[in-house]
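[step 3/7] inverse_fold.run input=structure_tokens len=245
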């Protein structure tokens, strides 16, 4: 994990900049690792279309999920046992984000532009990103990616080419977060899919207050996981990633 230089930009306090809670905070800056780090540690994230300037958001309320309360569905566990996918951590970050950028059945394009891809790949190279990959033989069929600072785990996007595989990646992240004592995973914006997975909300003041504690906590130990290859069947049976004797 690299020590990043100070960002060239100073972000405004989200509550002062957006007292009515619409979520939009400011526009401009860049997507360098230092700027992304500065943004996430102040409760902001970028969200904009490819033909727009960089827009920074801090929604009210904030969607989060508490890993220790997460329960996988019975159908998900059955599928994990049935298909026995290979699961890895931080093995194919760029492939995951590029897969997340592909058009979906319900939309012709996504907000994940080439600039976003480059910015987050650069951030990952400095040690502040993560990915979970689901493999069918040698083919990447699902996964998710995000940002990691201290005990702060910030989800960005996921994709799925087979039934339930993005949910398998999400369950894997929840188990890792439980084992690493992560208090919450940031899901940013509330939607029905996240609520169906067990997500809830924090008020923006509560989120920003908690954020300042988690980003200074000892960092998540990703290396203990990225040096291993996991089996979806074994995860489903044990309900944990690293089994301690």
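[step 3/7] decode complete -> sequence:
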């Amino acid at each position: 994990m690299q020590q990043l230089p100070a960002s060239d930009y100073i972000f405004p306090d989200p509550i002062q900049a957006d007292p009515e809670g619409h979520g939009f905070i400011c526009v401009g800056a860049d997507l360098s690792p230092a700027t992304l780090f500065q943004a996430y540690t102040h409760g902001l994230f970028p969200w904009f279309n490819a033909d727009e300037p960089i827009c920074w958001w801090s929604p009210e309320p904030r969607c989060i999920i508490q890993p220790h309360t997460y329960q996988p569905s019975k159908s998900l566990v059955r599928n994990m046992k049935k298909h026995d996918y290979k699961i890895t951590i931080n093995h194919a970050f760029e492939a995951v984000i590029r897969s997340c950028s592909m058009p979906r059945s319900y939309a012709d394009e996504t907000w994940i532009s080439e600039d976003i891809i480059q910015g987050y790949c650069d951030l990952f190279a400095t040690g502040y990103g993560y990915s979970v990959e689901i493999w069918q033989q040698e083919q990447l069929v699902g996964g998710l990616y995000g940002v990691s600072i201290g005990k702060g785990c910030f989800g960005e996007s996921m994709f799925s080419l087979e039934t339930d595989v993005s949910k398998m990646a999400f369950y894997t992240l929840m188990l890792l977060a439980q084992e690493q004592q992560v208090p919450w995973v940031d899901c940013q914006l509330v939607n029905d899919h996240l609520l169906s997975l067990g997500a809830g909300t924090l008020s923006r003041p509560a989120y920003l207050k908690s954020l300042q504690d988690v980003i200074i906590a000892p960092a998540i130990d990703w290396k203990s996981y990225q040096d291993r290859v996991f089996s979806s069947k074994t995860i489903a049976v044990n309900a944990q990633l690293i089994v301690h004797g």
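[step 4/7] annotate
The longest helix spans residues 165-179.
The mean pLDDT is 94.
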